[in-house]
Design the sequence.
């Protein structure tokens, strides 16, 4: 084997190693949360840029879907809750909507109190 | 992330702290009783975990894209959790599943064409390993913690500069197609679609080799020193 062909073989082996590790299948109900990549300082700052009231705004309906990001893939969430997950797509009736609104207001109030306490 | 303050003890029955995140079973109980609290509890204790998941699978995208995915994921989770008949089991699996879908959407919108079949690469990986002393070293090494290796690989690859990162993502996503034709021509074409510029074969090949050299250097620095050959 010449040096050149040996070098090429090693490069191809390296390609195969990286591809096999980076394309390793991971079931969504078997995520190894202990080995997810750590965030850099910049990435943590990006996450924190959402703000401490992100969930409060989201629950209040003040976080809108990203316009150019409507899903192009609408498959069932098969590994999340199994076959019964299809029920999650049912329409919301008026009574339920009112109940959700009441609960949402309660939660926003609790959330705001919590934020005030932390400040 | 703000520190948890034990405010959902009423559902979980135990005091929560930043160092004692609510378990998935406890999250289920929260979601069952109050979906909005479930969303809040999940983000409080697992928001960073979900973002790390997005970093792992959305490598090659920008930080702003990861944030878009995270926001979209939490929005969808909220809508689903509020729906009548919501199956509150495995809420973390649900959020990872939504995130996974939205990452694929984002990659496609950025003109990536990821092949998702993990089995499609097996024959080509075996062929590329064949005859390499390099590959024999890591294939039969018994002291490699592959979970740690993959974590390090994802951390390192995310630090590659723009063009190298895009080339790496396209190469990994379409490896079997390139190996089938044994040329870098298709890689240049696919990278051109992502960058919107006419990329040359020599340019993408060089970028991929530079990226690999950087990854190997950093992996070696972190203690994965099986890349050296005698």
Sequence:
């Amino acid at each position: 084997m010449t040096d050149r062909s040996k070098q090429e073989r090693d490069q191809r082996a390296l390609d195969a190693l990286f591809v096999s590790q980076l394309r390793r299948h991971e079931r969504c109900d078997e995520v190894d949360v202990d080995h997810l990549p750590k965030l850099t300082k910049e990435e943590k700052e990006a996450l924190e840029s959402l703000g401490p009231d992100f969930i409060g705004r989201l629950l209040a309906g003040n976080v809108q879907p990203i316009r150019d990001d409507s899903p192009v893939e609408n498959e069932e969430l098969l590994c999340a809750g199994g076959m019964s997950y299809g029920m999650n797509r049912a329409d919301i009736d008026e009574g339920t909507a009112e109940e959700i609104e009441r609960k949402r207001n309660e939660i926003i109030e609790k959330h705001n109190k919590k934020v005030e306490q932390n400040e | 992330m703000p520190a948890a303050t034990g405010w959902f003890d009423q559902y979980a029955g135990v005091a929560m702290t930043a160092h004692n995140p609510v378990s998935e079973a406890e999250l289920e109980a929260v979601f069952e009783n109050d979906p909005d609290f479930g969303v809040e509890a999940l983000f409080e204790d697992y928001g960073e975990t979900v973002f790390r998941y997005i970093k792992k699978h959305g490598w090659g995208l920008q930080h702003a894209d990861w944030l878009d995915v995270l926001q979209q994921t939490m929005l969808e989770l909220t809508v689903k959790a509020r729906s009548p008949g919501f199956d509150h089991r495995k809420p973390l699996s649900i959020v990872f599943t939504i995130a996974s879908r939205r990452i694929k959407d984002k990659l496609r919108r950025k003109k990536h064409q990821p092949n998702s079949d993990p089995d499609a690469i097996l024959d080509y990986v075996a062929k590329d390993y064949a005859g390499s002393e390099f590959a024999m070293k890591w294939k039969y090494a018994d002291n490699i913690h592959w979970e740690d290796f993959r974590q390090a690989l994802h951390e390192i690859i995310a630090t590659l500069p723009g063009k190298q990162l895009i080339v790496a993502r396209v190469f990994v996503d379409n490896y079997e197609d390139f190996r089938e034709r044994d040329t870098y021509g298709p890689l240049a074409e696919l990278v051109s679609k992502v960058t919107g510029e006419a990329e040359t074969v020599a340019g993408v090949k060089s970028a991929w080799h530079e990226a690999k050299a950087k990854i190997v250097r950093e992996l070696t620095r972190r203690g994965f020193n099986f890349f050296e050959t005698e």
